[in-house]
Amino acid sequence: MRSTIRPPRSIALRKWLQRLHSWLGLSLGLVLAVMGATGAMLSFQDDIQARLIAPLPLRGGETVLAPSVLLQRAALAQPGRAIARFVVESDPTVPALISFVDKAAGAKGRETVLLDRRDGRILGPLPAAPFFDTVERVHRWLAMPGNGKGWGRIVTGSAAIALIVLALGGLYLRWPAKPRDWRAWLTIPPGRKGRWWWREVHLLLGGVMMAVYLLSAMTGLWWSFDWYRSGVQRLLGAEQAEKAKSRGKPDFALAWQGFDAATAGRSYRRIMLIVPEKGAALRFRALPVAARHERADDAVTINGATGKVLATDFAAQRPGGAVIVASMFEIHRGAFFGLPGRIVLFVTSLSLPFFAISGVWFYLARRRMKRKGRARRVELCHPIATP
Q1: Which of 29, 243, 288, 326 sees the fewest Cβ atoms within 10 Å?
Q2: Distance, CA of 212 to chain centre
Q3: DSSP per residue, 134-162
Q4: 3-state DSSP assignment of residue 256
Q5: How many whole angstroms separate alpha carbon 238 and alpha carbon 281?
Q6: DSSP secondary structure letters along 323-361
Q7: Residue 97's beta-bridge partner residues?
Q8: 99 within 8 A of 82, measured Cβ to Cβ
Q9: CB-based burial label for 269 (10 Å; 0-12, 13-18, 19+)
Q10: Cα 363 from Cα 163, distance rounded (Å)
Q11: What is the 8-class DSSP label of residue 105?
């Protein structure tokens, strides 16, 4: 008969892991709760904003302007601002998106507005853009000064590492005596009540969601630490190529002609143009009609001053490692696995505040029980004298 008594080393390891689990949860649990709640808010950002944009129906053979003409008109209408990004859909009734940057304020003065594709008229700001921009800054950097170059990304990256340790440590602490029995993983033992029932819920959900939390944390580190991103790229054999550079003032008409020539015969659902702060190396990101997700797009870099193609990176020609690297954001938010993946990531992100709150509750309850135990032992050692 197999003994169920744990060896001393196992007991010591469990105690050490329990202390580490509690310490990480107490020190970074609030950060993880904030990251989870904001991540859930961002899960369906694109869908929400797309619903808020009213289409512009075309009447009686009415046509839309060419993208290069729209860009030229937008640049002339905003002389004190630089174009940073331009997005146009294949559906002509969907307004174009254009992001302007105040030349004096830099990136802090960025504003995204809707553009009427029939005449280039500005329709107004992108719906809910300030709200989602704030949520994203909190999610990625806790809205700390410096944004991606400040201490905020170090804190969120440390929280992601803590989530990995919490998930793996929690798995060890919950490991049942009969791991092959599914009921040991997916059921709550009978007779549990009150705090002990909630503790079992904490353990059960943590075990069920562990793989998703590991995926979220390991992909989230991509934006926190350069050494981690470089290591993953080397591991997957998809090291980032140097960005193409070119001098001069960009000509949007020439650039679009170069893009059309480089992508001849391909159909796209959406085309995004990214304009650098300096130089004329314009980057096009075009999403094919049958793309699996939003980041499975073709990338083309054009010398905007001459229309010459500087670099191409077509999604259909990428090796497996490059596909993962290009899709890291979609993997992080679950869209790489379709709508079910996004729903799973939404639920698991939303549950992080529950783990933070319940973990603090269990810790305080243990402290209270220890104080009562010490007081009881003192009473037994020093009984009250009776006359």
Answers
A1: 243
A2: 13
A3: HHHHHHHHTT-TTGGGSSHHHHHHHHHHH
A4: helix
A5: 22
A6: HHHHTHHHHHTTGGGHHHHHHHHHHHHHHHHHHHHHHHH
A7: 87, 114
A8: no
A9: middle
A10: 18
A11: T
Number of C-beta neighbours around residue 316 at 10 A: 11
**Torsions phi, psi for 124 (to 5 deg):** 140, 175
Write the single-letter amino acid at 387.
Answer: P
Distance, CA of 119 to CA of 228 (rounded, Å): 46
Amino acid at 144: M
Length of the chain as a residue count: 387
Q: In angstroms, how far is the first alpha carbon of the chain from the final one? A: 55
In sequence order, what are the residues at sequence separation of 6 or more whose Cβ sits closer than 8 angstroms to the Cβ of residue 221? 157, 160, 161, 228
DSSP H helices in the chain: 8-42, 45-52, 67-77, 129-141, 152-174, 182-186, 195-220, 226-236, 252-262, 320-326, 328-332, 338-381
- pLDDT 10s digit of each residue in the chain, 387 long? 344 445 555 778 888 888 899 899 999 999 999 999 999 999 999 999 999 999 998 887 788 999 999 999 988 888 888 999 999 999 999 999 999 988 665 555 689 999 999 999 999 999 999 999 999 999 999 999 888 888 999 999 999 999 999 999 988 888 887 888 888 888 888 888 888 888 889 988 998 999 999 999 999 999 999 999 999 999 998 777 677 778 888 899 999 999 999 999 899 999 999 999 888 899 999 999 989 899 999 999 999 999 999 999 999 999 989 999 999 999 999 999 999 999 999 999 999 999 999 989 988 888 888 787 777 777 777 655 555
Is the pTM higher than 0.70? The answer reads yes
Q: Pull the structure tokens for residue 164.
A: 């990995």
Residue 81, φ and ψ in degrees, nearest 5: -130, 150
> Which token pair is 18?
């329990």
How far apart are alpha carbons 205 and 208 in whole angstroms?
5
List all residues 6 or more positions away from 219 whose beta carbon is below 8 Å from its beta carbon.
328, 331, 332
> Can you read off the two tokens belonging to residue 265?
């015969």
d(CA 147, CA 272) in angstroms, rounded, equals: 24
Q: Which amino acid is at 271?
A: I
